[in-house]
Write a structure and sequence with these properties.
It contains 3 helices and no strands. The chain is mainly α.
């Protein structure tokens, strides 16, 4: 969620800027928690949000692999199927999945 260590650079200034942005994200999270009158340690809240973000990232990655598999297999197995039709079916599937449940996440 805070994306610590995700940016990679060879310059020291960029590393310092990256860590500063992570600290700003953390401070915004603390500010939001204090404004929401949530008392107690933020460790469990951070872990819960982090696990949810990890789950969503993995689900998105898996769905991109499934889409790629569908597109490539339709090209190999059935030459008569129009690629636009395959993309339309994928869009319908994505819309149906998104309609099933809404994920509420905050990206700081």
């Amino acid at each position: 969620m805070l994306y610590m260590g995700k940016e990679q650079s060879k310059t020291f200034d960029a590393v310092i800027a990256s860590h500063s942005i992570v600290m700003l994200r953390y401070l915004l999270l603390v500010y939001i928690i204090n404004k929401s009158r949530i008392f107690g340690p933020i460790g469990p809240l951070f872990r819960e949000i982090s696990e949810e973000q990890t789950f969503l990232f993995m689900a998105e990655k898996m769905w991109s692999y499934v889409k790629e598999l569908i597109i490539k297999s339709s090209q190999i197995l059935c030459h008569e199927i129009d690629p636009d039709t395959v993309m339309h079916i994928i869009d319908i599937t994505e819309n149906y999945i998104l309609a099933q449940g809404s994920f509420v996440t905050a990206k700081l």
